[in-house]
Queue: 4 jobs
Job 1
Amino acid sequence: MKKISSILYAFRYKIFAAAFWLLFWQVLSMAVNKSILLASPATTIIAFVNLVYKTVFWKSVLFSFIKIMAGFIIAVGIGILFAILAWRFLVIKELITPFMKVIQATPVASFIILALLWIPSKNLSILTSFLMTVPVIYTNVLQGILSTDEKLLEMAKVFRISSLRKARYLYIPAVAPYFFTASTVGLGLCWKAGIAAEVIAIPKNSIGEQLYTAKLYLMTGELFAWTFVIIVVSVVTEKLFTAALARLLKAVT
Amino acid sequence: MSILVKDITKYYNNVPVLKGCTLELKEEKITCIMGPSGSGKTTLLRILMGLTQADSGLIEGLDKKRITAVFQEDRLCGYLDSITNIKLVCRKELGIERIQVELEAVGLADIQNKKVSHLSGGMKRRVAIVRAMLADNDIIVMDEPFKGLDEQLKCQVIEYVKQKSMGKTVVIVTHDKKEVEQLEAELVYLNSSQ
């Protein structure tokens, strides 16, 4: 009992914030008084519980998770590779950087509509996630490499430290904070853009298809429930990824 | 073979930092370089280490020689412990026990698990000195290596450097004549714009 109350005390501000916003939501839904426009917290919870028992729920979550994370992981690999090449070869930096800026500036919807002409709808979220993440990873990793302490690099030159050791003990620790930030931002963008792509392309058994169906039949409770699911999956993925990254970094350095 | 510095000139923004500098650093001896601030001592060391190119002149005796250094700033990786900092520049075969013995010789027992960023300035200095001594070298370059050490510790560390640098060519920038005497070193004086 004492442990529970001490945990509650430790998280008192977070609990207060959650309770405040739930209450705000509830009051707002009562004020609007039209569940089609704004479902209440209770309606959303009921819709969520009903969803969880259905096989299609888990299939859809798994489908979207695999596609979006595939896009993210490919973006991480390509982003890091391009950043290293851009740091090493000025001509590559001059070629790639404008391309990355164009991707960053282009609206997601433009990508999605164009990409529908090129690739099957079931893979659209991979491409969209990739395009949203790769400029963020590239820019931040390049910045991290360039921020490596010049004095340490001079020391490495004098002491004839091998490239592998320089990478492990000088460059990776310098890049790590930039990469952490980029990954967190990139994951958030991935989920937003990936789900948006699925809502437009409507691939079978995806979260996007479920959202589209809920919107079509004005099932606002389900719509909110799916939104809640997307947020939870996105946050959990981010936490797991950054925890795994922290462990990897500790092992490497 | 001694290191012969012949007529080295270096300008920064059209201002001569070294002008026609000529001196000899005797083989397997310790040479101390003294001079006023701005006389180009650090610049000369940077040229010896290959970090800066001279604008004119010649240095003989550096071919295929391995250089290690103690910089004016410690240039240690703060996020690593002292042993990892040292292992980073040494051969893989160098054991942790050997490093610990060397650290104890300069008064640094029981710090191996601490990150370097948590060490005092004097401790970092000594780690940097041990690093320079343990890495494979023929020439050791040191820029004010004993700065920040109290007198007692300084004596201990100077004795350590004397012992470990036997058979090596050592160049030390210093402002303290007592250090020169204790090191039993040759002394070279750099004037401004020499």
Note: Residues 4 and 60 of chain B are 5 Å apart (CA to CA).
Job 2
Amino acid sequence: MKHVMIIIFTLFVAPIIGGLLFGIDRRITARLQGRYGPPILQPFYDFFKLLGKERIAVSKLQFVWIYAYLLFMVASLLVLTLGSDLLVLVFLLGFAGVSLVLGGFSSKSPYSHFGANRELLQIMAYEPVLLLLAIAVYAQNGSFLISDIIRQPKPLMYTLWPLFIAVIYVLTIKMRKSPFDISTCHHAHQEIVKGVTTEFSGPYLALYQLAEWYEIVLVLGIVALFWTSPLIVGIIIALAAFLLELLIDNVTSRMTAPWMVRLSWTFGLILGIFNIAYIYFTKGVS
Amino acid sequence: MSLIHTSRIKSPWILHFDNSSCNGCDIEVLACLTPLYDVERFGMVNMGNPKHADVLLITGPVNYRTARVLRNLYDQVPGPKMVIAVGTCASSGGVFHNCYNVLGGVDKVVPVDVYIPGCAARPEAIIDGVVLALQKLAGANL
């Protein structure tokens, strides 16, 4: 019964939280730029407007992939909220990213292909860091289960703080914020004509937005895992990270894709590997 | 009014297309996005992609080369869509109306909902025009 409640809560409340976060994002960004900004409910207006628009089919296949993107994103969020395996979560998130890439590749538009290629580079940049996070959690707790992380009396932050920095880096990539908004961007609507979402229009763009709302809750949830006793501290850390991302978005400019992968692989992977090595060094290999 | 209907009025995404304008009106369209006028407070976003757009803001007179492009862009915008002719040239051809290469106003190629006069059209007039188009979309008596 408890599981059913959690599933219903995840399916219906998570997108509302995600949409509100995007609304707050747009308002704060506008204020940082000296503008007034749209209402907080603006993402919901956009969503319902897109639902009511005409369906234009460029390729039937891309609709399959956008549904797959949404489905895998919801599935990985369910893995998080039900306290299941962290490794499964990382793989489902990878599948979700690949579905979006295939959606981009399924039409003939060069802009869409550009965006899909760049999205692949993004996946290449963040997946290894998330995998290292799962390994480090296993090294620390002896289990991949998220419910075991929540049950630990000592927060993960004490031993996994280098990976926390790497995960904040991943958060910038996953939230599509500057300097890593290379595949598609929330603010620059003319940049390579909107990247991977170029060929999605009307209700299918709405599905993409819905998946993004689940995604932001998911990535902030992963950040919150670093401090789960009590969980409220973790949520405050996640919200602080969200505000930090907005600041980073507004004070930096876009970098090139190879630069992102290079920095992620040097900075993120070195932090992650040293962290795992440190855990095994202090705890001993069992 | 249904939820989708309300949302349509609250979130017009704009596609700006320059036919063969002198750039006067284009500068004024972009001025709408600056902190002084900030159209994003009405939910208006300047899109670069016709497939995401709801409102076509067209500047400049149509010539024989841009007519095909304009028609193509209009066809790519998913309905319901609005077309706004910004400035005197887009409305009627303006000072270019008798040129050998100019067809005339935007309404020679695509159906136009709102005409915004002015050379160049002021940002206030452009915002007013978009609001008028949205009222038309909402089915209000004008």
Note: Residues 2-32+60-283 of chain A form one domain.
Job 3
Amino acid sequence: MSGKNPLPVQQNAISTILCMELAVPAFSFGSALLAIFFSGMDSTIDVRYFAIGCVISSFILAYLAWIRPRKDIVALTTPIYSIIFFVAPSEMTVSIVLELLYAVSLTILLIRLKWRFGAAPESGVAASGRVLEEPLKGYCSTVQEQVFGVTPGAAHQAALAFAYFGRGDYLDAVQAANTASAFPEEEDAHPSLATAFAIVREHALLLEESAKMPDPFTEFSATSAGILAKPLPPEDKLHDRFEVSLENALLLLYAVAWNGSERDRPLLLSLQGFALKLFSS
Amino acid sequence: MKIGNVDVKVSIVAIAVFVFFTLVLVIASLFSPEVRSNLIWMIPCLFMLLVIPVALNYMSRSEYADITPQYEVQAKTIRVKLINESMIGKPVRVEGVVERVYFQFLNRPQYLVADRSGAISVKMFTSPNEEIKVNDVVEVLGQVIRRYIVSGEPVINCVSIRKIKKS
């Protein structure tokens, strides 16, 4: 069973996004420079038409803002401003100065977008869920190498437990974890997976009852360290260990489900935003 | 101002608008006999500039007061990090520290509330029962929504925010 994604699709998406990012200053400054060039010649071309470059740049910038998980309302509204600024004809010199200032503004907004709103998703469309993104993809590959032979039934329950937990349906998550314990052969073959189910079950019950952290709580054994997505905090930081244990358990269930239950992949892809959030520190 | 059990608050913007148009009306009526002859309907209209925001605030606050008990029962106490897109529409309870407060003057405050696991925007579409300031430790009850209704990251549409202890 292959856990790999179509890499060329991702590379194409990245290069397309890079081209679009470069197109923002290229179109806006390019059109302004063309306007300056033609205004210096005795050309019959109305240089104000070159403002279309700024309008196109604005739409590209708005698209780049749209595909990000966090939306930048300023970048998203630039097409409206471009139309307001450039649709009404103005005096030629004013138009050229306006185009130059607008090109500078768009470039600043592009830098701000990349700086404050993160990189565009590899898939090119936010939360489209068509491909698995890093670091989740790498982690799923790691788990695939270390946890093999998980039955499709257990993998399906892992997918369900993750999905229910992510949606806040905690009693259903408990149910899925309980159903998974009906596969006793998994507990012997994959103790880390059994612990992950136990941790998710424990946290789901606590969240359902809005209860505080118990003492003691279920944790992965030291032998599971190699398979966990995140290193466990020191033993004196109990709250951190409690939370990281849950994150590791959920991510392990996600990876096991991804590798072992092909039919659940659309569901898992739709929830990868949550999984990626769990990866963040 | 208290109407029934509801403590109604008028935003500074609504008061500023009322004061501005009062001044305009006073000055206009001093210089124009035509304006003076129309004061009989202009003055009620002027007061509507205050009455309408008060009525809207009363309605929204009494509505929020009615639904808060339902949220008290249904909402699960959850860490910020566990809130995600697939929870849109779920009632949640979050406890954390207020890191930022925006738009308080509009009676539409927005808070950035953080707990050990992360921070989340908390939007309120009416004024809160008590004044919430930066560094207050609060309990937020609300529903997970998208920031721009159909898109954007998950935020909390706040039904109730209250201090749970002094910072």
Note: Chain B touches chain A through 20 residues (CB under 8 Å).
Job 4
Amino acid sequence: MTKNSRRVVISGLGVISPVGNTANEFFANLLAGHSGIRWFGDSGQVVGTVVDFDPSVYFTKPQLVGLDRVSQFGLTAAEQAVLDAKLDATALEAGRAGVYFGSGIGGANAIESGYRSFFDNSDGRMPPLTVISTMANATAAHLSMRYGIRGPVMTYSIACASSAVAIGEAYRAIRDGYIDVALAGGAEAMVTPVMVAAWAALRVLAKPDINFPEQSCKPFSKGRTGMVLGEGAGVLVLEALETAIVRQPKIWGEIAGYGISSDACHISKPSPAGQVGAIKAAIEDSQLAITDIGYINAHGTATQLGDVVETAAIKAVFGSAAHNIPVSSTKALHGHLMGAAGAVEMVASLLTLNAGSVPPTCHYSEADPDCDLDYVPNTARKGLDINAVMSNSFAFGGTNAVLIAKRFVQRHPRLTKDSSNPGLR
Amino acid sequence: MKTLTRSNNVAPKSTGSRTIAIMLGLLVENFGVAKEQLALDQRLDALGIDSLAFLEYVFELEKTLNITLPDVPRDLETVGALVAFVDSEVKRQHPSYSPT
């Protein structure tokens, strides 16, 4: 198997998010500009929380023992993706399958409960399953067990780029022939009192809009004040084209390129050069022209500096063409899902590719001279003919990950359901 | 060290049948065991109580019964065996409570 010898397609999507717990609901709310940002109790902060998620609908009581909220999200989104891809358990068990998963923190709720129990009680009583609920690779391990996946089961904890890297690495593993199919994505559930306070202490959170708290996150807009923490999960089924073609699921797109770089300069301050490196690498990997990119889902956290740096990086790579590309940050509506952000936003990008409808950058009120791209302010743009989309994920720690997907075009008419392709082995 | 005076726990007022009721109730409420499956001669693993769930079960028993169970014998395979052990610990750790 030679490098770059196989095409990698996306055959399944799953989402748990503050604006919807299915991919379709999620995307419809993005297009409609419905925000999932809410007050976080009486903390004085706003967050993007997952609502209408009752674990007992998806899990039995024994299954919930030791299963943190982050793993509940990940497993539920994965189940959606597996069903969407028409994958059955036999295929995953028998096939050369892997799990590539990202999370920034892991089981934040479990570790917070553990600390609370330890410090609040004079006996130092500790819930016995704190370790296995908290560990960053718990969700990936549960996915492996649930579907009998015995290939590589990988966890990437790379802050905001975790799940973008997970998808990118799964793409490479399939493209290069190491596996045939992967559950790729990420989950995060760190909307807890301590984590919200920790992020607030870092002074990067948006100042809540008192009158319209749901509008507190204003990416690329003058007057933006910072990011909003969110939670959720996104999972994609990635597979080699020759295995997908046998089952004939809906193919949402083809992974065209993946680029990764590191700023190597600051633990939290973004670097234009680092972001340019990742964007260029992804475009080069895709073998597309920059004019083929019809939509960019920006990292767009709504921090003062981050949005300026990302704008500069896009312009540095795309030149004058940058102004012709719709760029939007859906974080205005769902918040920053951290380790899940790359996957959830890749789902948004893929649905944009399929629908020809670009979700807006909501809560945009006034142009910032340093952010001068077409951010699709406040209203979705529909009826576009989009051939390729790009999703940016730029992490604390300096890792930059960029994914490009293109519209799936069947180039091998002889590959039919009756062909002799091996399918999942 | 654990104390026996935690305000958020309810110490049993009697042992025996009360211990059994609490233990079986936790199996139903926390671990989804069907009531019709409950029997003292039933094996815990047959009820879905694997090694990790067992740890969680013991943790809940400690909280609910206000006892410590640092050394649960590993050969307690049935509900009844565990009930007998836990009930003996309740009586040992709360000798003032009158048995049923």
Note: Chain B has one domain: 17-93.
